Amino acid sequence: MTIRPATTADAAPLTELATLTMREAFGPPHNPAELVDEYIQSSITQAALETELTDPRSAFFVLELPDGTLVGYAKLRRHKPPRQMADRNAIEIQRIYLLQSQIGQGQGRMLMEYCLDWARRQGFSAVWLGVWERNARAIAFYERLGFRKIGFHYFQFGSERQRDFWLEKTVTDRPG
Questions:
Q1: Which pLDDT tens digit goes with each residue over 116-155?
Q2: pLDDT tens digits, 58-95
Q3: How far apart are CA 133 and CA 138, in angstroms?
Q4: CA separation for the pair 1, 73 (Å, rounded)
Q5: How far apart are CA 14 and CA 44, in angstroms?
Q6: I need a labelling partner for 53 at 20 to 30 A (CA). Which of 25, 45, 70, 97 fits?
Q7: β-strand 126-132 against 2-5: which pairing, if any?
Q8: Which residues contact 86 (CB under 8 A, 6 or more apart)?
Q9: DSSP structure string for the chain
Q10: 27 or 98, which is more confident?
Q11: Distances from the Cα of 23 to the Cαs of 14, 35, 113, in angstroms?
């Protein structure tokens, strides 16, 4: 397994991976297939990913097998943290997804730790992320890694408004 920064050359396979992981994570039985398709058609297109990959406020990382097949990815984005965060020197882990077939083998932890290390090296002292309130498996994963709930926000998923929890984690040691 290799984790590396994604480039615009990854746009097509990343679009395929993002589409598949979105269907696996949020499709039936969690949401109707039509709702997931609506979100994918509006938000996960190759053109949209090409734009995101060139955004200087974003950093994408891909997890790939030795044969070059992408099996996971993460996107971090610099923007204003939620008002609930006391530490304003933070970056959002906006997306972190792994193929269902790879879950439970340590790759999710490896990808998350890579993101946390990258954030620390970039000078951030904290990270935050949003997680769907009904995604108990992901919430448990984040909590095992030391994330804590700080609030919630609403997320437009296709034509449906869903609630996400905000979670945060400090990535640097705070002075005594």
A1: 999 999 999 999 999 988 888 889 999 999 999 999 988 7
A2: 999 999 999 999 999 999 999 888 888 888 899 999 99
A3: 9
A4: 12
A5: 10
A6: 25
A7: unpaired
A8: none
A9: -EEEE--GGGHHHHHHHHHHHHHHHHSTTSS-HHHHHHHHHHH--HHHHHHHHT-TTEEEEEEE-TTS-EEEEEEEE-SPPPTT-S--SEEEEEEEEE-GGGTTTTHHHHHHHHHHHHHHHTT-SEEEEEEETT-HHHHHHHHHTT-EEEEEEEEEETTEEEEEEEEEEE-SPPP-
A10: 98
A11: 14, 10, 24
Tokens 């297939």 belong to: 33
All domains in the chain, ordered by first residue: 2-170 (3.40.630.30)
d(CA 34, CA 99): 20
Q: Does the N-terminal peptide bond of residue 29 adopt cis geometry, omega within 30 degrees of 0?
A: yes
Query: For the chain, how many residues are written?
Result: 176
